[in-house]
């Protein structure tokens, strides 16, 4: 987890989320956006022209970080959605 600050940080238990079929490490209590960024994933969706979109405001206002929860098909803001162990996320579709 090279992009995470490691020194003097207390985190929840280690968990795994699945993004576009790829297992990504995460910690209980952090957002999907945090886990994705820490794993080097900067593209959260594509706009109507097919251009990649990523995290912009990180507070739920802009909706640039919309991803799809596979189990429900629901679109959510990754910056506001808590990562849950085994959660499957799709950035396409």
Automatic annotation (TrEMBL):
Extent of the signal sequence: none
Record protein name field: Sarcosine oxidase subunit alpha
Keywords noted in UniProt: Oxidoreductase
Gene3D superfamilies linked to this entry: 2Fe-2S iron-sulphur cluster binding domain, sarcosine oxidase, alpha subunit, N-terminal domain
Record GO terms (molecular function): iron-sulfur cluster binding; oxidoreductase activity
Domain of life: Bacteria
Record bears the keyword Oxidoreductase: yes
């Amino acid at each position: 987890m090279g992009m995470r600050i490691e020194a003097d940080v207390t985190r929840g238990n280690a968990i795994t989320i699945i993004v576009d079929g790829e297992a990504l490490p995460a910690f209980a209590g952090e957002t999907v956006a945090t886990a994705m960024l820490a794993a080097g994933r900067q593209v959260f969706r594509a706009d109507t022209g097919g251009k990649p979109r990523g995290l912009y405001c990180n507070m739920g206002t802009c909706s640039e970080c919309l991803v799809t929860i596979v189990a429900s098909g629901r679109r959510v803001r990754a910056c506001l959605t808590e990562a849950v162990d085994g959660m499957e996320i799709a950035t396409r579709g």
